[in-house]
Each structure stands twice: as structure tokens, then as C-alpha cells.
Sequence to fold (309 residues):
Amino acid sequence: MDLLQLRYFQVVARYEHMSRAAEELCVAQPSLSRTIARLEGELGSPLFDRQGRRIRLNQYGAIFLRHVDRALSELDDGRRAIREARDLGLGRVSVASETLLTIAPLLGSFRAAHPRADVRLHQSTAEEMDRQLRARDVDFCVASQPLSGSHLDQIELAREEVLLAVPYGHWLDGRESVTIPEIADEPFVTTRQGHWQRALLDRLFAAEGLAPLVSCEGDEPGASQHMISASLGIGLIPAISRQVGTHTRVPVAWVHLDAPDCHRVLTLVWNRETHLSEAALKFREFITSRPFMTHHLPDPRRERGHDQS
Fold:
């Protein structure tokens, strides 16, 4: 079964007349008749009732026509969408990220550089990202946890230290570094299972044969710093948030964790089997051609005075 057969069947069903259909399609009537006969043979059922030279769409033909109309309509919509994207814009790019704080500034810069691109942003866990990439619901994921699969390609965007944030006045306020055993009894503000902060917290404690004491958990990583500032606990915060924090004046103190691999790796991941729009291709070029974040950050011991200024 091919597209030409479906187009021919649609026209014949509309006219219920081979000669008129052949005239509109600009084909010879015998050729049109053979095409319809081959289609009926492939389906294993006649689509028309024939009485001499007259034909009428039968019940099987009516059922099949509804599906053919929908299928061809979708294809026509696809052609129009491509034409509109080519003539009026760059098409759509959909991006998923575990935290919106990480990607929002870069997406803003991309939209400013490419105002004709339709940009969509989703907040997703690593498990959701894997499903979204397989289902082609998103073009890219900015992942803070490993995503694996033979169908996936990825590029490392950045590596950054993950710091311990504590409220001002906490006994760790002013400390340069701390070990995991020293904070074994401290209540932690973190995210639910599935988010990268929780995965890192559990891994760091498990390496010491310990389990963290979780006092507050949620789905919005960007809210953790505010809860820590309110003395609801301490927590793991990526270094990029320290830069943002100095501008939004979220009052927390920063401490280095003396633990191996206490960092976050950000990767851009996509399904190599997914067709990428022009907007998606330009986004990939844009995000991989510039520094994703500042790697050299100021000493956290000096930032308290800056925050209080």
C-alpha cells in the first residue's frame, strides 16, 4: 500500500465514478482501475460494489475512507507546517531540564538571537527525560544525571562543584570545608527521588555507610536555597546558584564538601533517530558553541559580606 493508491482511492470514493476520477487525476481509466483493484487485494476486501459500469462505496470502503481522510489530512498539515516554518519561522525546539534555573538564561539568549524560533521548555526528572526522548516529545534534554541508550547522543556542556548551603548563624557558617560524617545528623533540604540533588546526596552518604536525614523534600530544586535560608535545614546546591544567589540576595553561607565527586555534570542529550527542525539544529549549535556557565567562581567565604551589602 502506497500513498498514490490512497490518493486515487480518495478521489474515486468521492466521485463513485471511474471516468470522472481518472479525468481529475489525469490518468488513464484502466490504470486507475488496476490501482484500486491492487489496493482491494492488499486489504483483502472489496471497497466498492460494482453494478455494470456503476460503482458505489460499500461499508468496508466507507470505514477505510474515514481513516484515509484522516491520514492524508495529517500529511497535508505536515506539508503546511514545514512550508510555514520555512517561510515564516525556524520551526519548534523543545527542551527538557531538571531545573529551570539552569537553562532559562541560555534559552532567553537563544530566543533573542533567533526570534523566529518557537521555543518550548519542560521541567522533567531523569526518568521522564528518557521517556520523552524515546517518544520524541522533546528534541533535547539538559541532563544532570546520566541518560543511557544506544539511540542517544550527548555532549558534555559543563562541570561544576556542588556546595553545601547552610543558614547564616549555623555552626558551619564560616567553615571552609566539612566531611560527610560531620553532618550525618544534620537535617537536609532536598528534592524527591528522581532529581539529581537527591541522587547525589544519597550517593555521598552511602559512600560513608550512612543515610541522610531528610527534613524537607520537594519537586522544585530552585526553592531549596530559600528553604535553607529559612533554617529548615542544610542542602546541596550547585555552584551556579551561588552566582544567582548573590543577585537575588538569598542569605545562605557556602561550605565546600570534602567528598569525592561532589560535582554536577550537565550534558545535552538527544535521540539520534529524531528529525530535528532548523530551530533545533540552531539551538544545538548555539548551546554547544559558548560557555554554559562560569567555572571559576569566587571563594564562598567572601560572599557573605557581598550578600549583606
Observations:
- The two ends are 73 Å apart (CA to CA).
- The chain has a mean pLDDT of 85.
- Residues 25 and 220 are 58 Å apart (CA to CA).
- Residues 3-88 form a domain with the Arc Repressor Mutant, subunit A fold (CATH 1.10.10.10).
